Structures are given as structure tokens and as C-alpha cells.
């Protein structure tokens, strides 16, 4: 197996399993750990992986995106804490947009059930979670359903969303960086997110630390467009401070 084949194998493994470890890769590919570290460094330079202590995880891109089913199995304790903290920022909002994705779905699950609320969403999962809440009115955006995320996209969804003035939007992303802002792999998804940004008075990003520094294909917002960023303690306090200097309050839970 040559170097390129090995690196493709490492990338395929990361995408299949969600992450890779140096020690395990060295055994599987029968090479030295230092060789694996060099491979991970190169893959990171190409924007395909993000390195962690002892391993790496895949970066979502135009050619690769995890499904909602996969997201529901990864980092669930962290995502649950993030969602609870984000839901606490609801304030006096009466109309709320909830984005597609597992973390936004957990935010919706954490909403109070004892007050009137109108929730606009493109996510079938979010709509299902809230459908039986007596005091919550759910508006599901129409459009083409993406099977990987079970959410609607394209001009039908964007046009419907453009007709609303929304108090607060909970927005997710595949990557967030200080240089490129918030990004996602699919242009159709990006347009719905961008319209949610335009239609809302307040905006909150909720996502795990692994998304920070990652860059995907389509940019739909800047870091400074948000009043708050909610993430887990895996994001260092120094890096959180760098993001906060761009405008939003950064909350680590």
C-alpha cells in the first residue's frame, strides 16, 4: 500500500467510524505511529480531517456530510448540555426558528411547555418533537426533503421563511471559524440558513467544540452576526475569548 492509498484508507475509516486514533491506525496499516501522525497532518492541511490529542475526526465538506442518524449517536452528553444552555437563552421570544440537525432538535426538546410559543422549522424531527406540545404552534417549512437530514430545502422553504419576522433563531452549522464564519456543505441548506439569519432579530449558534475551526463549502453567516455561541468545554477558554472579541457571548458548558 502506497502513501496515497494509506491516506485514503485513513480518511475512509474516519468517515465511517466518526474518528480515528493514531495507535489503532498504526496497527491496521502496519506503519510507525510517526508515519500516521504525518498522514493526519497532511489530511488536516487539505481540510479533510481535524486533529485531536491522539487522533483525528473528519471535517464535513461538499463531498461528505454525516447523516442525522449518525449525529444522534455522537457526543450526546455534550450536545444535551449545550442544548439545555441554549434553550435557557429563550428569554421573552414568542416566535422561534429551530434549524435542522440533532443539537437544534435537542434545543427544541428543552423548550418550556408551559408558555405559548410559535416554532418555525425546516426539520421534520423538530416538528415531530414539538407536535404534541399543547401551547406550542409548529410551522413546518415546505420544500424538498433531504433524506440525510430529514429537513426541507430549496426555494419553497426559503420563500416561506422570508415572509416571517422571527424573534430568535437557533442556527446550526457544519463548521464555524473566525476567518470564514459559519459554513455548511450544501448550497440548498445554506440558503435556508441564510434566510433564517435575515428573518430573525436574535440569533444563537449551538454546537460542539469539534465544529470550531472547521470550514465547509458554503458560507451563510459571520461570527459577529450572533448574540451568543453555546458550546462545550472542549473549546479552550483562550479560543472562546477570541470568538467573543468578534461580538457574541460565548458560553461553555
UniProtKB/TrEMBL annotation:
PROSITE patterns assigned: HTH_DEOR_2
InterPro entries cross-referenced by the UniProt entry: Carb_Metab_HTH_regulators (IPR050313), DeoR-like_C (IPR014036), DeoR_HTH (IPR001034), NagB/RpiA_transferase-like (IPR037171), WH-like_DNA-bd_sf (IPR036388), WH_DNA-bd_sf (IPR036390)
GO-annotated molecular function: DNA binding
SUPFAM superfamilies for the chain: NagB/RpiA/CoA transferase-like, Winged helix' DNA-binding domain
Domain HTH deoR-type: 3-58
The keyword rRNA-binding appears for this protein: no
SMART domains to which the protein is assigned, alphabetical: DeoRC, HTH_DEOR
Keywords: DNA-binding, Repressor, Transcription, Transcription regulation
Keyword NADP: no
Summary of the function given for this chain in its UniProt record: Repressor of the lactose catabolism operon. Galactose-6-phosphate is the inducer.
Name the record gives this protein: Lactose phosphotransferase system repressor
